[in-house]
Write a structure and sequence with these properties.
binds zinc ion, 3-stranded antiparallel β-sheet, 12 strands, mainly alpha, single chain
């Protein structure tokens, strides 16, 4: 499917939620319902020299724009593709002396596009930028202060020869970015590297147990023939069967929180009260809070070490799962794979009872756990997890996504190792020694202590 085709969905009024999107045909797990290129997107301030400003891939060597010395690209193709959106930015950065922050840069890119095409409906969009929600009226004092500062920096940066917009319109754009900016990740899905606005995606309402997932695809132009090139886009993918007329939903927040917490986060970040079935009935809350004895001990014990929690928290308790996740990540990073794999296994077992079977976070977590097991020489369970993760990512990311392709390489490699292990253990360990010297399996990100954020990017 080519990005921008929106024939399979329809805008409608969803009860209690305002506008929404519904399916006009039947979909099955893994189907791409629509793909959408960014209306505008920018790289985060801290990564402007490490990530391509067109495709958002992290690269060793990037070419710098000779004019502004600010923008960086993979190659000529990415640089050429960028020019339409970078042209005005390039001269404004030169005139201004330096690049403003990511929020200002994104607003400016949106405004230059409006100057070019007008604020009405653009090709492939079911909704215009003018019509997107901004929630400025819901802003608290702190947010209003930030908005005023953003508008001021924007006006300092915005060149006098470009089309001039009123204060209210500029505030609208910042409001749109604040509640609809979507986080873009690098090609391995390891790091958030930028933020973009995708108008059609903004029409997809939230449900804590959604029927779709949204995945960022950096695209690629590596194929020799340009007809096989793909551009950077988001893809809305079905998680299971969807009937014609059914509303399409995604989850704006990680499911791994009890309904009360999710509702609080949704209210704070997206200004609505979630009335989805899982929230109303508190479905799976009991699993996430499972304790073996004495509920009042839970919060206190979470702050202490895992060993002490062991006798108290149930296997699916989310506080336990979060600590297991941190423990396995940090230990993997420190290359203490044996201990890490034990924690990763318990984490994944808990996740599988809580998450939707095709949840993308679940897929990524199972993948990391599989790699940890592989590193710990636990080839049988490692291979099993890698296969499981591969099945999930085929649905959530699709077969051509770089992460799925990485995973396929791992699957083939671990399958071969498993066969060797079953035939001849001695040979297997010999081969592993050699393999580790020229390691191919590499998907460990540095552990971070960032709080899990929502689907849409919000300025910290
Ligand atoms: Zn690129
Ligand atoms: Zn430039
Ligand atoms: Zn909900």
């Amino acid at each position: 499917m080519t990005p921008g085709e929106m024939e399979m969905v329809e805008v409608f009024t969803s009860e209690g939620k305002g506008r929404g999107l519904k399916a006009v045909k039947e979909f099955w797990a893994g189907d791409v319902i629509f793909a959408e290129p960014a209306y505008a997107a920018v790289v985060f301030d801290s990564l402007t020299h490490l990530v391509c400003h067109t495709c958002f891939k992290r690269q060793e060597k990037l070419h710098r724009c000779g004019q502004c010395k600010f923008a960086h690209y993979c190659d000529r193709t990415c640089q050429k593709d960028a020019w339409l959106n970078h042209k005005h930015e390039c001269s404004a950065i030169k005139a201004h002396g330096k690049a403003p922050n990511e929020n200002i840069r994104l607003a400016a890119r949106i405004m230059w596009r409006i100057e070019r095409e007008g604020g009405g409906l653009t090709e492939g969009c079911l909704v215009s930028i003018d019509d997107l929600q901004n929630h400025v009226e819901n802003f608290g004092e702190e947010e209003k202060k930030e908005l005023r500062a953003d508008v001021e920096s924007f006006l300092n940066f915005w060149p006098p020869q470009s089309q001039q917009f009123g204060m209210q319109y500029i505030s609208h754009i910042f409001g749109v970015i604040n509640c609809n900016g979507f986080t873009l990740s690098d090609q391995r899905g390891l790091q958030a590297v930028g933020v973009g606005v995708f108008p059609n995606l903004c029409l997809v309402n939230h449900d804590c147990w959604p029927n779709c997932t949204v995945i960022f695809n950096n695209g690629n132009h590596e194929a020799v023939r340009s007809m096989f090139h793909t551009q950077m886009r988001i893809e809305l993918r079905a998680l299971g069967k969807i009937s014609p007329g059914e509303e399409l939903t995604v989850s704006y927040v990680d499911f791994l929180n009890v309904s009360e917490e999710r509702r609080k986060q949704l209210q704070k970040q997206y200004y609505f009260d979630c009335t989805c079935e899982h929230c109303q009935k508190g479905i799976k809350d009991d699993l996430m809070l499972a304790v073996k004895e004495g509920e009042n001990k839970v919060v206190k014990l979470c702050r202490e070490c895992l060993k002490k929690q062991e006798p108290v928290l149930g296997d699916t308790n989310i506080y336990l799962l979060k600590i297991l996740s941190i423990a396995s990540e940090v230990l993997s990073y420190l290359q203490m794979f044996e201990e890490a794999s034990g924690y990763a296994k318990r984490m994944v077992d808990g996740y599988m009872k809580i998450y939707h079977p095709n949840n993308a976070q679940l897929g990524m977590a199972v993948m990391r756990a599989g790699v940890t097991h592989w590193h710990a020489s636990l080839i049988e369970s490692g291979h099993g997890m890698i296969c499981k993760a591969y099945a999930i990512l085929l649905v959530t990311h699709g077969p051509t996504h770089p992460i799925t392709k990485d995973l396929e390489v791992m699957r083939v490699q671990s399958e071969m190792e498993l066969r060797m292990f079953q035939q001849n253990e001695f040979m297997y360990y010999k081969m592993r020694e050699a393999a580790l010297k020229n390691q191919k399996i590499q998907v460990m990100a540095e552990p971070t202590n960032e709080a899990p954020s929502g689907l849409f990017h919000t300025k910290q």
